[in-house]
Records
---
Amino acid sequence: MLSPQQQYRLTSSFDPDETTGGFAHGADPFLTSHNGIKIYGIPKRPAIPVQPQVHILGRGPLPQEHYGFPPDFEVQGIDHEDFHLPPHIPSEERESGASRFYQWHFDGSLYSIPPPRVGCLLAVRTPKGPDVTVRWDDGTGTEMKIAPGSTAMVAGSRALELLDDETRNIVMHSRIEYAPHAFVWMSTAHSTRLGHLLETEGLEKPLDKLPPWEKDKVCIYPMVWTNPKTGEKSLQVHGQGAFKLYLKDSPDGKEKVVDDLKEVRAFMNK
């Protein structure tokens, strides 16, 4: 089993030019301290004190003396009731195995700092029991069975293939602008029940209420990324952080700027 230090060294070896110290997410907020050691992150996703670039995802108490955490430290865990648009899954149905995807995303701060070349998940301990039923809850009735505690992955290359021809042609030549401090911006909004977009309710934090930000640090990325080794192209977008779209259907085509959030999300839902 890799230690947090080894896990960080493994991941950072793919990205030797990374200089932020937070490895693509920047500095976490201060959480607490123990024996003179400052602990960062949030209770639902704390940074490991001995290697703060590595976070713990899960729920429940940690072992004693676990890599610098205080005694009896407990990870709160994430819950769709904190983020998704109501109605939520009733407790009795959750007890029977009903579940949802919490959030579809790719790792990155979406502001100021470029995303990492490689991400790394290490399953230390996973829940045991029968498969859970993940519901789309988007009106289609779509469901799938997965093991409890699983993290679902989507291949961007496959996602690109699955688009219809018209949409694929557009994303091949288009860019996406993310909100400044995107995760703070979206923190007051509701996610869709599928976890891929935000609901358009006007609940995003106003730009003038965000932490200080600079226009030249706002991230504008292509929608399609190319593997520098193989040339394979992949769709890579973060639907919930999307703030503005720059759409083109050819390299020399006229660019259409979409800055109405409802229209932005309608396109991202294709």
---
Amino acid sequence: MAQFPSKEIAQLSYDFRTLGLGYANVGGLLMNMWLGYDSKEARALTGALTAIMTGTSYATSAEMAGELGAFDGYGRNAEHMLRVIRNHRTAAYGADEGYDKLTVKPVALDHANCPDKALIDLAMASWDEALTLGEQNGYRNAQVSVIAPTGTIGLVMDCDTTGIEPDFALVKFKKLAGGGYFKIINRSVPAGLEALGYASSQIEEIIAYAVGHGSLGNAPAINHVTLAQKGFGQSEIEKIEAGLSSAFDIRFLFNQWTLGEDFCRESLGLSDAELTDPGFDMLRHLGFTKADIEAANDHAIGTGTTEGAPHLKQEHYNVFDTANPSGRKGKRTLSTDSHIYMMAAAQSFISGAISKTVNMPNDATIEDCQAAYELSWSLGVKANALYRDGSKLSQPLASALVEDDEEAEEILASGSAHDKAQVLAEKVIEKVIVKEIVQRSHREKMPERRKGYTQKATVGGHKVYLRTGEYEDGQLGEIFIDMHKEGAGFRAMMNNFAIAVSVGLQYGVPLEEFVDA
């Protein structure tokens, strides 16, 4: 049973029996069919599928009304609802005129550009049936469809994209149950490349360009041979190789935690100051240039994009365009208008509205936002959620992270969105892990007498008591977990969990790290 925010809203739901049927993975489907998201063919296909979904739903609703009766509010709304259905049907027929009492014309189904003409016939037939049965029986449901974000259910359905959204990025990092990350490319990319006629060997090279080879073995400049010349042994090279599959940048692996403090001191001759310096770049210290590091990154980690990939023709770039520039080298991105035109193609065949992010570049102006809203209105789009890149509340904090790094400041001021994100990620890691945790390299014991509090909660019908211990400055230093009813084995597990968290807190691990993990 659905949960409603108020009794009145609950009653309306029963009176009008509104439904919210929808779909997900439109972006993945289009890429599989080698259709660029910002293309007439993609919009026509999406419009046709949406028309079939809603038209068939209304036809089914009318059929049910013939057996069970129309929804309670249908009688006083019959004339207006049938007018709405007729307008939907007119749009399905691709008409520019003939709409009843509409001041803003909907975007009609694009018959000419739909890649599958059978879908056009099905769309028209579904709305014919919806109107015919509705005139006879009324409808069991006042509304039948919306386009939801599908952020959660999309994961369960194993979708590449959510709702009507395009893909956000071509390469993703998937968190593993046992810890760490696994880098994967959108599964629609190889399918789309195959549909475009590329050979399997070419597809492999294009994918490797995007996700990397996962090894420095044959990398330019920085590889097993050149590392051995710098003093790296087989053991150290294997440690680097083991971390490449989940690394964002090879520089993250060249540190004392990966290679071992003894090796860094004795074999590489690094000093204490260098090892504890958050800005220390081991690869640059070893004599590798910025170009060397970039080339090795591209080979081992990948570029994160298909732009510039071997064999990929420029006329096919648009098939793999995403909401934001992909990877370190990606420049292409879908325009603001392309998002709105896609919504408009579907909106004419949706009962409710569409929940979708309309991405805008960081340099978008107030006038750009106004133009986006006006375009949405002129096309009959019911909802528009603009997001200007970098406009989240946390953005102003970025400058504080790079205040002592001139190169990082320059990137933050004029670099691409991906470069900015990479710099900020590095600085956050330095601040949280290096500056905060490393500075407390010993365990800070709790005082003999300490303050704390007890929090009672109920989880799955079980009473749980969380007790805390604090340092004199109020910082959390330990936790205890007690349960009302528990077996010896479960009690031991909870105690060990609490001890592990407490020890981490006393070594300086931020509480947020445990929460996010």
---
Amino acid sequence: MDEVDGMAGNEDRGGMQELINMIKITQLPIICMCNDRQAIKIRSLANYCLDLRFHRPRVEQIKSAVLSIACKENVNLPPDVLTNIIDSSNHDIRQVINNVQMWCSSGLIDSEGLKADALGARKDLHLSAFDVIRKVFAPDISGSQGSVATFNESLDLFFQDYNLIPLFVEENYLNVRVHNTHDDKKILQLMSQAASDIATADIISSTIRSSRTGSWSLLPIQGVFSTVSPGRTLRGSLPGGPGGVSFPSWFGKNSTQSRINRTTSELAAHLRLATHCGSSNPLTLLLDYATPISELITRDIDSAIQFLINYQITREDVDSIMELTTWPNRPNRMLSVDSKVSYQYTY
């Protein structure tokens, strides 16, 4: 079964679980193929499969196979030209064979003509964000065939995923090992310049996504400040290994912020009548009411329960209040309450 990572939408709802159920009961082998091994939906499937990972074939492997085909077809194909064709196709065997067949059938078998056409037929390759971020900070070797990247090639890295790549740059630019300098002051200045560019890109991003302006024509400018400029300013390498590139922590923090906003809105709605609309504003609730309430409901159990009844606070609201008033230097007050006493809050 090919493209199992493409199961999405209403048409394929439940398809992955059904495939797993088939694997559990079938007596015949099922071969599942995917392109994105790190997709969330593939992680559950991988628990029931033998995980075999394949890498792109090397130039020598493709060259020997294509030259064998060319010999059988009585086609004289120079090896150096074939190397250019393979590189321009990003080691895609099917495209290499198709290009060779097309050029041979059209009579373009001279070396110069094939080289020029190979550059024009270069295949766009979608890279993962983890691969892109390493190329961003290595512009000297991230160009075509390992050469110095042009401005457009660096900008293309941003457009691999213009929503995700800036977050990766922001998360990892402080971990870059800057080349060609060991002066701490110079490195700090470069980091400061990169941070300034990232901040400018964030302002541009807010303008682009504003409901009033929606200036999507500024997207290339955001790419320059968020990706191209920091990469060319630092010009270094990220630590190797699986943990060398950090996933953006913005997603977790944004999720936490959204959950807290939702929690404070629900609490404000519950306390609106009891506080005579004094806590109708979630910010007012968080600043003026949350801490005193957390102190009151963790004292005497009888008065605490009566307080909860008077203010129409549910058991879920108690957990929310405890979460809102928990800080790194201020632990959850409910942890200091005896378990037998806290158990009574459930009734």
